[in-house]
């Protein structure tokens, strides 16, 4: 029997590495900046809410109340102070579609995970960035990124060869996903993006894979 109460998020989710990892283990993904992994617990929270909402009906009393509580707010009023009943004075006053309230439930669950992780993510990203830059120093790359930047994104420019072909070979031969940057007026480059769930061993595997495709040795 469907309960009248919308599913709540998990206030104390499992934050072990195994529980947080959502990516497939048969290849390495170094392109997480654009479409990073979703915490499985956040996906489950969103799916539970979406299933419940489908059962009670979004436009019934229970569903509509839960829907309005879950979502951030109508897009026609986002620019106004909290609690305002007015509409934006420009074209954004017209609603542009029904908001996926379950996505906001998943977002709240994600924020709950990050609150528990605290500074761990920042510390891990900083350590892995240092490791990656150290390994890249052995390879024929020009590093475009600022070494001390506090992000998991490093852009490198190969000093020779077909960059697009290198990216393809990394996938076909090494089963590693890296992103090609090929824009007008900018020399072709590769964006390497990682996050806290990557390991030092995986960073080393990335460097070794590049070494093989570039036909150079690494220490």
What's the topology here?
Elements: H1 17-20, E1 28-29, H2 40-56, H3 61-70, H4 101-117, H5 120-136, E2 141-143, E3 153-158, H6 163-174, E4 176-177, E5 179-181, E6 189-193, H7 200-214
Parallel strand pairs: 1-4
Antiparallel strand pairs: 2-3, 3-6, 5-6
Task: Characterise this structure.
Strand 5 and strand 6 (189-193) form a beta hairpin. This protein folds into 2 domains: 37-117, no CATH class; 120-214, Aspartate Aminotransferase, domain 1, CATH 3.90.1150. The longest helix is centred in the first third of the chain and has 17 residues, at 40-56. The N and C termini lie far apart (62 Å). The protein is 42% helix and 10% strand. The mean pLDDT is 85. With 219 residues, it is of the alpha+beta class. It has 7 helices and 6 strands. The chain has a 4-stranded antiparallel beta sheet, covered by helices on one side. A two-stranded parallel sheet has the order 1-4. Helix 2 (40-56) runs antiparallel to helix 3 (61-70) and helix 2 (40-56) runs antiparallel to helix 4 (101-117).
Properties at a glance:
219 residues, elongated, single chain, 42% helix, 2 domains, alpha+beta, Aspartate Aminotransferase, domain 1, two-stranded parallel sheet, 10% strand
Class from helix and strand fractions: alpha+beta
**Rg:** 22 Å
Q: Would you report the number of β strands? A: 6
> What pattern of helices and strands is seen along the backbone?
HEHHHHEEHEEEH
CATH superfamily of the largest domain: Aspartate Aminotransferase, domain 1
Distance between the termini: 62 Å
- SS element count, helices: 7
- Write the CATH fold name of the largest domain: Aspartate Aminotransferase, domain 1
User: Strand content of the residues, in percent?
Assistant: 5-15%
- Give the strand order, joined by hyphens, for the main sheet: 2-3-6-5
**Structurally, how many domains make up the residues?**
2
What do the pLDDT scores average to?
Answer: 85
* CATH-derived architecture of the largest domain: Alpha-Beta Complex
